[in-house]
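Duplicate of #3305? Posting structure anyway:
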């Protein structure tokens, strides 16, 4: 069995990569992908802690399924919003959209 620390390190690296992407990228689709990476890190933590709980507690895995469903809905709605923004402004660059709005 793989130790819990390995899962936690993997999740923290994924979360750090996602946070870096959210803070540094200008393209809205890349920011959405970085948010998805951060959500995947949280899902890894939920499943890892669920496996290591006593008495085969599957509550973390159930929460992980709900998080996956929420992530899919968030991605679909986010991409639909980006399509509308692109049609209105002609770009999905976050800095350009801020300049056009003001």
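Output from current build:
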């Amino acid at each position: 069995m793989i130790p819990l620390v390995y899962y936690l390190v993997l999740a923290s690296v994924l979360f750090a990569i996602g946070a870096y992407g959210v803070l540094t990228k200008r393209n809205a689709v890349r920011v959405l992908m970085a948010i998805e990476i951060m959500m995947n890190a949280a899902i890894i933590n939920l499943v890892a802690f669920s496996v290591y709980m006593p008495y085969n507690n599957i509550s973390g895995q159930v929460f992980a399924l709900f998080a996956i469903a929420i992530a899919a809905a968030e991605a679909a709605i986010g991409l639909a919003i980006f399509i509308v923004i692109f049609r209105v402004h002609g770009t999905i660059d976050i800095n350009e959209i801020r300049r056009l709005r003001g």
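Confirmed duplicate; merging threads. The radius of gyration is 17 Å. Helices lie at 4-24, 28-51, 59-89, 94-101.
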